[in-house]
Amino acid sequence: MSHYRIAVIPGDGIGQEVIPEGIKMVEAAAKPFDVTFEWVEFDWSCERYHREGAMMPEDGIEQLAKFDAIYLGAVGYPGVPDHVSLWGLLLPIRRQFDQYVSLRPVRLFDGIACPLAHKEPGDIDFYVVRENVEGEYSAIGGIQFEGTEREIVTQQNIFTRTGTDRILKYAFELAMKREKKHVTSATKSNGIYHSMPYWDKRFANMANHYPEIQTDQYHIDILTANFVLKPEHFDVVVGSNLFGDILSDLGPACTGTIAIAPSANINPERQFPSMFEPVHGSAPDIAGLGIANPIGAIWSAAMMVQHLGHDDIHDVMMGAVESTLKAGKALTKDMGGNANMQEMMAELMAHMPS
Ligand code: NAI
Ligand code: MG
């Protein structure tokens, strides 16, 4: 019998609506297996920031460290600048728990209208592996002569050998478990003089250790074009923090709606808890209306149980998602249907094995 303690941070807006539904799905799917969960909720959010002046308490990271995983909705709300919510909660968690892999699956499901012409389910099925703690997203740099004609701004990119090699290794290991065994590297070594040629060199070096894996690399500009033009080419795509960020929104967008897309922030060594969250934000435009699509949150929860070692529970949850989308009877507005969230939940639950 396994027991897990999960830290739950619903956050803001529709985060508070979809996260309870993800929990319900896990509980229902886990029933036949010998696995139990304890869900401990934290109200860390922009609401808390308004009330107490901080997104989370000072010892927030210490509190989370004791959990097996973190399940997060979304943070960010009008009235609190986005850099405050990001640097006050999400980034400290990702960095202090060394969640250096951001993993985002991209899959076209049967029943979803694909925005790309002539693509069938099965054509699009790949992973974006994004470096999540260094690269272009650094706080190193500064402004001098601010507000004058001589104003000068610098922003440093950070590429360490450890940081570069470990994300590349994760991508190759993931590809080893997949049928196509193919890794694509996102680069820009024609324009960026130091860091990207270095990235290419480490990629080639890593590829030498995996002779079974087929590799290629594209500059980020043509790579984005190829996501749209020939998504069936890709299997595992690895990129730096910035390139991975862009690709991991573009990928899911090519499969219909970002509202179903999940993401995992992983510490592969398991020294710290990993964090699972839908790709979408707090959607203030539809918050409180009860019409949010819960699938991004549900798929994220499925990745979480898989990370904890339970492929069986993951597969049950994803089976229900697949058959609900295929049946097409209770789709939310973002997918062209007219079901509300509870109607879609009823359909998802009905597709769970009883
Ligand atoms: P968003 O993802 O919240 O919304 C974009 C559009 O997609 C909206 O029209 C929204 O209604 C729709 N949408 C998103 N999720 C949906 C769902 N589950 N079902 C149905 N429709 C859905 O992105 P936006 O508007 O750029 O950001 C809103 C706030 O969320 C901002 O404060 C932003 O900083 C924050 N945000 C937080 C993220 C996180 O916590 N990881 C990620 C992205 C944005
Ligand atoms: Mg993003």
UniProtKB/TrEMBL annotation:
SMART domains linked: Iso_dh
Listed EC numbers: 1.1.1.83
Keyword Manganese: yes
Catalytic activity: (R)-malate + NAD(+) = pyruvate + CO2 + NADH
Enzyme kind, highest EC tier: oxidoreductase
Alphabetical UniProt keywords: Manganese, Metal-binding, NAD, Oxidoreductase
Cofactor: Mg(2+); Mn(2+)
Gene Ontology terms, MF aspect: D-malate dehydrogenase (decarboxylating) (NAD+) activity; magnesium ion binding; NAD binding
Isopropylmalate dehydrogenase-like domain mapped to chain residues: 5-348
Pfam families: Iso_dh
Family membership noted in the UniProt record: Belongs to the isocitrate and isopropylmalate dehydrogenases family.
Protein name: D-malate dehydrogenase (decarboxylating)
